[in-house]
Design a protein that fits this description.
- It is a single chain.
- With 385 residues, the protein is of the alpha+beta class.
- The chain is 48% helix and 21% strand.
- The strands form 3 sheets. A 5-stranded antiparallel beta sheet has the order 2-1-5-4-3, sandwiched between helices.
- The radius of gyration is 29 Å and the shape is elongated.
């Protein structure tokens, strides 16, 4: 008999939906585990229930009513098969047990997944059923889907919280350096500039030329300190990440970039970016910087491809690839450090550092590699809502 043909079908669906709502209110994975096992015990006539968490492709038992398992154990082969296949696995007879002479007669392993990512595996075992049918697997799959959604949301919140904490630590360090630069070094530069002005007014020839170079170097350094201070002020004013419409942000950024930079052509399909992501008011600055870099640091006409990598339930990756000169592999690792720049760059070196600081403040990341067009490809990873 199918799940829909069960006499208590409507009641069971209603109960599953109630548990789904309760799971979405959970604050920790431990709460999800406890509530899921409670549902498995109350809604299904099961002898043993096991919750197996999946992280980075690895499985571990979180909790089980089966005395054969303790928290932290490796699960059975049945759970591993459910993880690898992404499909419900049913075992009967001898293969259903986890030990010799087991009284288990049937095992059901259901992957809890969103899209293609498995967050957990729910394993049910019976000592009375000879096999698990659709009336067992379908409702357990519904419960597993609710559990996967809850875990995915919790992990997203955890990543955002870690990003916020990392950002606060980074801000404190930047603020310290900013105060040292503006106060100590800034005062010294004023003295150097003042004495250089006085010397230049009293000498001529090569000595005057040297005095002029000292003046220019001091003023350039003072200008650099001011720009660092402006950057720090911008980061300090960053708001908490909120849900943003990625498609609208990129569409506006592309339009503005094409109006600003002659000879720049951008391939962009808005339909690829119909996602909501976490970001602040300056999220558009991340993509403006990357597209402008391609236009400014390459000669002649420049082509930029804006494309989305295959999204996961938690993340979306925006690829910004150009056909320019590319970036020397030797400097890629340090490219996002504040002040870092290539040997032929005339910029300040803060643009990409700013991009990384903003992206990480939203719980994301940015990397660079060689693009398929021969230039550079930046990959911006953002958290999905």
């Amino acid at each position: 008999m199918s799940f829909e043909e069960q006499p208590d079908f409507a009641r069971q669906v209603a109960d599953l939906n109630k548990y789904g709502q309760a799971l979405n209110r959970c604050e920790t994975v431990e709460e999800v585990v406890s509530l899921t096992l409670e549902a498995m015990s109350l809604l299904f006539d099961l002898s043993y229930s096991t919750f197996v968490e999946a992280r980075d492709g690895e499985l571990r038992v979180v909790h089980s009513t089966n005395p054969q398992f303790t928290p932290g154990d490796q699960p059975s082969e049945t759970a591993q098969r459910a993880l690898e296949s992404g499909e419900t696995i049913v075992e009967t007879g001898v293969s259903a047990g986890v030990a010799d002479h087991s009284d288990v007669t049937a095992t059901l392993a259901v992957p809890a997944q969103m899209a293609d990512e498995v967050a957990a595996v729910l394993v049910a075992r019976s000592t009375s059923e000879n096999a698990f049918g659709d009336e067992h697997s379908r409702p357990l799959e519904i419960l597993a889907s609710h559990a996967a959604t809850a875990i995915s949301n919790i992990r997203s919140r955890e990543r955002l919280e870690r990003a916020r904490q990392d950002l606060e630590t980074r801000k404190e360090m930047i603020e310290l350096y900013d105060r040292l630069l503006r106060h100590d070094l800034g005062n010294d530069l004023q003295i150097i500039t003042g004495f250089a002005d006085a010397v230049e007014a009293q000498v001529d020839g090569q000595t005057a030329e040297y005095a002029g170079k000292i003046q220019r170097a001091a003023r350039n350094s003072a200008d650099l300190i001011k720009r660092v201070g402006d950057l720090v002020s911008t980061l300090e004013q960053q708001d908490e990440p909120e849900p943003r419409d990625l498609e609208a942000i990129l569409a506006a950024t592309v339009s503005q970039a094409e109006d600003t930079h002659g000879g720049l052509s951008i391939e962009f399909d808005p339909a690829e970016f119909e996602h909501r992501v976490y970001g602040g008011e300056l999220l558009d600055s991340v993509f403006t910087n990357l597209i402008s870099n391609a236009a400014v640091h390459n000669d002649g006409d420049v082509f930029v491809e804006l494309a989305a990598a295959t999204p996961t339930p938690d993340e979306v990756v925006v690829r910004v690839a150009d056909d320019g000169r590319g970036i020397d592999p030797e400097i890629r690792e340090d490219l996002f450090e504040m002040g870092a720049k290539g040997p032929e760059s005339n910029g300040s070196g803060f643009g990409l550092g700013f991009v990384r600081a903003l992206t990480e403040s939203y719980g994301g990341s940015v990397t660079v590699a060689e693009s398929g067009h021969g230039g550079a490809e930046f990959r911006v990873t953002l958290q999905r809502v």
